[in-house]
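Example record for the data management plan.
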Amino acid sequence: MGISVELRQLRFFLCVVDHRSVAAAARVLNIAQPALSRQISTMEAEMGARLFNRLSRGVSLTRFGRELEVRARVLVAQADQMRSEVAQAFAGTIGRLRIGVIPGYGWLPGITGAVSGLASNQREVRFEFVSCLSGEQIELIKCGRLDAGCLAWRSPQDPSLRGIVIHSEKMAIAIPRKSSLASSRNPRLRDFAGQTFLTFPRDRSPAHYDSLMRKFAQAGIEPAESAATASDSATLLGLVAAGLGFAIVPETFARYHQNEIVLRKIPELDMPFELQLVWSADNRDPLLLELVRAFEHPLPPDGH
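Corresponding structural encoding:
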């Protein structure tokens, strides 16, 4: 048979221990002495052992009572700590945040500045960053496995999500340096008719894929089918460097493979690459709201 003792009863027990008197403990607890005596008797009956020796003046602990005191103090302290931590978590001062980041963008000042600002604000916040593509992040946010995500190409028509822009840049076309098109300073998208374009698989980032296909259609071209795909821009550029085709990527990636690739701006690629902090519209976690505010006002690169 299991023992059923409430935390409240343990507090009563410890108060009697500390004051070595049921009467004195009752006054401190602001309850009637007979009621406190009944609580102690109930505990003794539940445990099948006497906890106190009743003296002419006050009480003393039995051997069983001393054993219980040690464990009761640990349990009560743990309960108090848990209550304090839950209260702090509710206030947004401690806790853990799981944040998604698309590959290659964790270094952005808007991200590092926001995290630094939140972490330095005397908060016991633990961060867990998960590298994954935008489409995967959205699914993880919706099922509660991510608190927020730094992602691109989300559908603004999705009412279950909210977001703020944290970074914006233009798109460019990555051209193998050995290609004849690399020498053109002002290429147009139609110049690449029939060429192979390397892209993400549509199921990994539907909005991004569909946006590119619309641009190709508007330019009146149909890219040749590619024998290779990749799940992030850095890998796409590796395939371009290997001469497997062309890719449309954010300008940030101009620093990659500079000996093998040139990046050129294309007038038709007027769609901005916007990175957003995205979270569930139903998530009211105070710590998440603190994170949003930190992204709205990130620390500058020098930290001041």
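Summary line stored alongside the record: The first strand starts at residue 52 and ends at 54.
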